[in-house]
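Go through this fold for my students:
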Amino acid sequence: MAIGYTWNVSTVDTYPTLDSNADVVYNVHWRLTAEDDANQDADGNNWTATPYGTQSVDTSDLSSFTAIVYAEYSPRLSSLPSSPFSYNWD
């Protein structure tokens, strides 16, 4: 009896190198899916809405940058925690 939200940020655009830094993210592609389990269409499917967009990232000063990462289980990422964490490159 609520609306659930799911964020998907699966694509980022990067500069291969910028000011001696590798793989610098300058644009993030996002999608937000909302699903209403209290309302269904004629076939019994929950109502959904999925806006999407991009967000540019200011890369003008990389001297103090914090990345926030969320990792779910993957064989390639099995050593990372399954909750949000941040890393500060100061």
